[in-house]
Amino acid sequence: MASRWLRPEVYPLFAATGVAVGICGFSLIRNITGNPEVRVSKENRAAGILDNFAEGEKYKENFLRKFVRNKHPEIMPGINKFFTDPKY
């Protein structure tokens, strides 16, 4: 049975499945540990709805959003300028 699935042509399928499971796991752990709306302990769940805007803002404004906030949405700016700027 193992020789049926462990052939070289199946490796990309395993890699894609592994990446998908990794992304799902990352999202799950990030939301459980950092999301202010997810409460795991019984005491926190009993508190009801909290109006904690500072914690929500901290969760929303993560490092990646701060990094790309003032950047142009271009993948290859040099090529874009070459084809659109008349000075070249």
Automatic annotation (TrEMBL):
TM stretches of this protein: 12-29
InterPro entries membership: B12D
Keywords per UniProt: Membrane, Transmembrane, Transmembrane helix
Domain of life per record: Eukaryota
Alphabetical list of Pfam families matching this protein: B12D (PF06522)
Name of the protein described by the UniProt record: NADH-ubiquinone reductase complex 1 MLRQ subunit
